[in-house]
Amino acid sequence: MSPKTAAAPVFIFDLDGTLIDSVYQHTLAWSEALQQEDIHLANWRVHRFIGMSGGLLVHALAREAGREVSREQAERLQDLHGQAYAKRVNEVRLLPGARELLDGLDRFQVGWAIATSGKRDKARPALQMLDLSDDVPIITRDDVERAKPAPDLFLAAAEKLKVELEHCIVIGDSVWDLLAAQRARALGVALLCGGYGEEELIKAGAYRVYRDPADLLAHLDELGVRVAN
Predict the structure, then answer these.
(1) Which among 40, 61, 90 is the end of a domain?
(2) Measured CA distances, 46 to 31, 57, 165 (Å)
(3) Strand ranges (DSSP E) for 56-204?
(4) Is residue 2 part of a domain?
(5) 2-34 pLDDT, tens per residue?
(6) Are residues 119 and 175 in the same domain?
(7) Residue 10: left (phi > 0), alpha (psi -120 to 50), or beta?
(8) I want to staple 10 with a disulfide (CB 3.0 to 4.6 A). Which of 33, 43, 90, 111 is the partner?
(9) Which residue from 72, 15, 26 is spatially nearest to 49, judged by alpha carbons?
């Protein structure tokens, strides 16, 4: 079946920092992993790369520290990050309005999917927090050749939703989400709850910037969602 034109916008959500308040747990987990490999960076510098795929992120962080990492060390760092994040996963919570936003889109008969750079096993606890039904399209790093800032995740999500990506709105919290959205020719909308500033998100291509999922829910009409008869 060929993709169809959506009568209403279709939403593709990033996960960490967009629906789940987990960015700083990931930041600390990467910092811990780096330290175990004798690579030292301030946490704020680590935070700037959260949202990239794990492989790209490792090499970006090593470059920031003036280091090079082998393929084996890069894989080890990703494993160490997973172990460090697992120790913090109980601290993670839904962002304000996340569940209500998804329920609202269902109520307004708006299609949506989740596309995350995380592998499915690492994303599972966050996805379970959202209590999603089995028919929700979910794209993870395991499903694509390249993750953000490449557009593959969003392209795969649009394919599952059976719509052209030009008719999708990508919701993310980082400049990497917005770069991937632009490369996929989708409209990008940003949330502040991942720690990036409004100005840099707009410069990265955000059409609109909202505080968090609750704020986005209150302004769905600005994105072309018909919320009243």
Answers:
(1) 90
(2) 7, 9, 31
(3) 93-94, 112-115, 138-139, 168-172, 187-191
(4) no
(5) 444 456 789 999 999 999 999 999 999 999 999
(6) yes
(7) beta
(8) 111
(9) 26
Q: Are 66 and 99 part of one and the same domain?
A: no
- Given a contact cutoff of 8 angstroms between Cβ atoms, the answer to whether 201 and 83 are in contact is no
Distance, CA of 103 to CA of 101 (rounded, Å):
5
Cα Rg of the chain (Å, integer): 17
Q: For the segment 137-161, what is each residue's pLDDT rounded down to a tens digit?
A: 999 999 998 888 899 999 999 999 9
CA-to-CA dists, residue 34 to 46, 73, 141, 147, angstroms: 10, 10, 22, 21
Query: Which tokens in the block code for residue 42?
Result: 């301030």
Widest Cα–Cα separation across the chain: 59
Q: Binning pLDDT at 50, 70 and 90, where does residue 196 land? A: very high
What was the pLDDT predicted at 7? 61
| Overall domain count for the chain | 2
